[in-house]
Write a structure and sequence with these properties.
This protein is an alpha+beta fold. The chain is about 60% helix and about 10% strand. The chain contains 13 helices and six strands. The protein has helices at about 5-10, 10-25, 75-105, 115-130, 160-165, 170-185, 185-210, 215-220, 225-255, 265-275, 300-320, 320-325, 330-335; strands spanning about 30-35, 40-45, 70, 135-140, 145-150, 150-160. The chain has a six-stranded mixed sheet with strand order 3-2-1-4-6-5, with helices on both faces. A hairpin with a 2-residue loop joins strand 5 and strand 6 (about 150-160). The chain is globular and about 55 Å long.
Length: about 325
């Protein structure tokens, strides 16, 4: 099946990318679960023979047809996948409330003062947040969580995320809220557009400064002269900071405990140090495949998160989270 046919067939297109993710993370299985129905979760095994074949069992030959195995409710993988579903629904519900409140506030302004572009963006975010999302649990020991513009409304988490980074729901909420922000703010698309713009600008500047064309040819061949990676890095860093800041607000609105958010960064730093110390030795995990490859650990990010704690704790009290959690009302409010 060609690319055009795959795009026309959403199931095959999804299967293609799920299979690719499994192969990238050397995952022998994955669990796909919708956020609204925990009973539909099944365990799949990717195919190295035909990408995406697990989505079309009836079309596959007997030798490469994988099995669709219902997840054992008692298995550790099922428990972690279902917990991710539960936490994500609360986070998404909180993000929806915050976005709806922002839209309501903007619409309350006089028409002359309204920002029509902001209103349109908020409406698009609300529409996206109201749609059903899917959780994909990869059976990989490499700790990671990610979203991708090629597969909208899919949140990927690995088994390694729970053995290395996230040891409670508050830390998991920090990660999921961060990734949801990337998706809602379309950071992947913006980063791609920014890189394209920087590349184009670099070639334009070089064509003016380099009439002979040697440097321009080198740039077209991928040889960098410093400006492009610096600009790309700065833009990526700004996206990460926005995801940290806005994501922590979503997690707080969902009544997760802000004081526990910074612990995630300490867990990540400890894992990074451990892996760096194991370089050159046999290891099942790879730094290049981990969350740290795209989410660099730095004192700056840890300090920024700690710097938000005072305002986040005020929001936690403002939302009356202690009462909601104690009365368990927060669960039906965001997960009902």
């Amino acid at each position: 099946m060609g690319v055009t046919e795959a795009i026309k067939d959403p199931e095959y297109y999804e299967a293609l990318h799920l299979n690719s993710s499994c192969l990238t993370f050397r995952s022998s299985y994955f669990i796909k679960i919708t956020e609204n129905d925990r009973l539909t979760a099944s365990l799949f095994k990717p195919s190295t023979v035909k990408p995406g074949v697990f989505a079309f069992k009836e079309k596959a030959s007997e030798e490469d047809a994988p099995t669709f195995t219902p997840v054992n409710p008692k298995s550790e993988a099922w428990v972690l996948a279902d917990m991710t579903r539960f936490v994500f629904r609360r986070i998404k519900g909180a993000a929806l409330k915050i976005t709806e409140e922002a839209l309501h506030k903007e619409l309350q302004k006089d028409q002359a003062e309204q920002d029509q572009m902001e209103i349109q963006e908020l409406k698009e975010k609300i529409s996206e947040l109201k749609k059903e999302w899917k959780i994909v649990f990869l059976g990989s020991s490499t700790p990671n969580a990610f979203v991708h513009s090629f597969l909208p409304r899919h949140v990927f988490v690995t088994y390694g995320l729970f053995t290395s980074f996230c040891f409670n729901q508050d830390e998991l909420a920090t990660v999921l809220a961060h990734e949801l922000t990337h998706a809602v703010e379309k950071h992947n698309e913006k980063t791609s557009m920014f890189k394209l713009a920087v590349s184009t600008l670099s070639l334009v500047v070089l064509s003016v400064l380099d009439p002979v064309g040697i440097l321009t040819l080198a740039a077209e061949l991928g040889i960098s002269f410093g400006f492009r990676p610096i600009a790309n890095s700065a833009f990526s860093r700004s996206c990460e900071h926005e995801a940290d800041q806005r994501g922590s607000q979503y997690a707080t609105r969902a009544c997760y405990q802000p004081n526990k958010f910074p612990a995630l960064f300490f867990n990540m730093a400890a894992w990074e140090e451990k892996i760096l110390n194991q370089q050159g030795k046999d290891s099942e995990v790879s730094m290049s495949d981990s969350l740290l490859s795209t989410h660099p650990i730095s004192e700056e990010r840890k300090k920024l998160m700690e710097g938000q704690l005072e305002s986040l704790n005020k929001l936690y009290k403002e939302y009356k989270c202690e009462d909601l959690v104690r009365k368990k009302k927060v669960y039906w409010e965001y997960d009902g």
